[in-house]
Amino acid sequence: MCGFAGFAGPGGERDLAVMTSIIRHRGPDDDGVHIDTSGALPVHLGFRRLAIIDIEGGHQPMATAEGDLVIVYNGEIYNAPELRRALEQAGHRFVTDHSDTEVLLHGYREWGLDMLERLNGMFAFCLHDRRRGRLVFGRDRFGKKPLFYAETPDGLVFASEATAVLSHPSVPDTLDRTALVKYFAYGFIPAPLTAHAAVRKLPGGCSMVYDLTSRRLSVSRYWEYRMVVDDQPPGGPDQWAEELRELLDRAVERRMLSDVPVGFFLSGGIDSAAIVALAARHRDPASMKTFTIGFDEPSFDESGYAADAARHYGTDHACRTLNLDTAAGMLPELLGRLDDPIADPSILPTHLLSRFARERVTVALTGDGGDELFAGYDTFDALRTARFYHHAVPRPLHRLAEAVAHRLPRSDRNMSFDFKLRRALRGLGHRPAHWMPAWLGPASVEEVSRLFGAELTADGLYDEADALWRSGASRHDVDRSIEFYGRFYLGENLLIKADRASMFCSLETRSPFLDRDLVAFVSRLPAGVKLQPNGIRGSTRKWILKKAMAPLLPPAILSRPKKGFGIPLSRWLRHLPQPPMETAARIGVDGAWLAARWDEHRSGQADHRGLLWAWTALATALDRPAQPPAPMENAA
């Protein structure tokens, strides 16, 4: 796990040094540079390394023996041993002992950009193809590893974090109003947009080529997360459960390969417990280090369940507690470093958990992706009722229901009835394509409109989600909602949270549920085995995963309701300091209206937790001290 930065065009070593210094937390173990001024445009590549695989031989930038290909790369390729064997059989000769970086170099030479479809892992890379005069970029399927870039009049600037791109003197820091509107609607900024107009992010599942002579940039998609509805696996639920368990087992085993200590995040829920249970097949559980975060608010605390799971498997378990004082102390620095703002408050416990784990390990396996692949959220339970409500309840009656819900007493408990009811009704005011973003977003369409002083519509705010909903092969609400979660909520929110929260403290996190082979199999399973109807009692979420893991997990874990990795946000916001309103003018939002929402929330008149946290995260990120640009050298 590492970070890289670079540019093609004007600039020099000092510019590169500033860029790589900004991402030093991504790779504190080693650094390196590649500078080539022989082509149509000068190319500068810089690298920061967190050494995980082939510590002695994995130095970057790495070049082929002939020097015609040079790469900087962030991530892990879990099927690198298989690819290496295939390349050796094709006549390629390797210099390193087991570096996955060298596999990418030879893989590109053998297969070109078709290599991307063969990779099973998390990655972002820039490869300088000196012979063909171009820079080649790739990003993993879900976008677990970041890649930002900016086209300038004289070249291209790129890096693992947007702040490094913005530090280059040729890149202006003008904000993108459209992107900020989307941020308040979704809680994240959908690719390729970023908060800054000049900076873009390469979407997950895409490659990019920059021609150094013509200065033309082209982006192509090599994979997109979709449900495959006409090609179900052979057999039935019993066989599917067995195959699912073995695929997940193989994914866990692959992700335990490391030359440094590996640990496990453990919440006591089915996803993280499944990872630990399968890992215990491959190593002594007493040697496995598991970590969890607790809360002093009981409705949010899962530490007891995690401790029970750790005792069941016999792991070396440790726990720490996150309270308001700890959160307040962490918040300015953590949110101030978010180069791609997200309105997910669970970044606080995730970062504390990562810092805690980093004291003992360098790599941690997580359960990320399980809820998204297998319909694990409350919102999936709501789909059947939502479809009926949508057809049966007239608009005047819906508005009356919203007014009644607004008057209900407010609770600070985790996923309280009043909170879920108000959020459900907010989504049900829209058509089905907009249910998920309206349920999950921090602010309603009306609130975003008031905040920005514009007449906005759901069609305009949620057009990305709408396009995905309409273009899917499946007509099933569950399938289309799973696609939304995988493409947007997971790829644009949770994985950004996991990357930043862990890499700020130089910890690599790995997600077995996002294994290429596992995802391909699960995408072919029918919706009914993920969210299985259960008569008048509703539905069983993650049914096929629970069936697959039943031989290995205690019944208490299999039957426990999902709690979610939340924090007591509504209560904490009544005590956390309000960000300075000067930032509102820079962003172009109504500061007076926003201040009134703070007053309503602090007094208990209303619950604006989503809106106010989104504002806090964004304002803190944009209020960070500006990085002074270094003078450009060797200007063309």
From TrEMBL:
Its EC number is 6.3.5.4. Signal peptide: none annotated. InterPro entries: Asn_synth_AEB (IPR006426), Asn_synthase (IPR001962), ASN_synthetase/amidase (IPR051786), AsnB_N (IPR033738), GATase_2_dom (IPR017932), Ntn_hydrolases_N (IPR029055), Rossmann-like_a/b/a_fold (IPR014729). One of its GO terms (cellular component) is cytosol. ATP binds at residue 293. L-glutamine binds at residue 100. The keyword Phosphoprotein does not apply. It comes from the Bacteria. CDD domains: Asn_synthase_B_C, AsnB. Keywords: Amino-acid biosynthesis, Asparagine biosynthesis, ATP-binding, Glutamine amidotransferase, Ligase, Nucleotide-binding. Coiled coil: none annotated. PROSITE patterns: GATASE_TYPE_2. Residues 2-213 form the Glutamine amidotransferase type-2 domain. GO terms for molecular function: asparagine synthase (glutamine-hydrolyzing) activity; ATP binding. It catalyses: L-aspartate + L-glutamine + ATP + H2O = L-asparagine + L-glutamate + AMP + diphosphate + H(+). One of its GO terms (biological process) is asparagine biosynthetic process. The active site is at 2 (for gatase activity). Pathway: Amino-acid biosynthesis; L-asparagine biosynthesis; L-asparagine from L-aspartate (L-Gln route): step 1/1. NCBIfam families: asn_synth_AEB. Belongs to the asparagine synthetase family. This is asparagine synthase (glutamine-hydrolyzing). It comes from Azospirillum lipoferum.
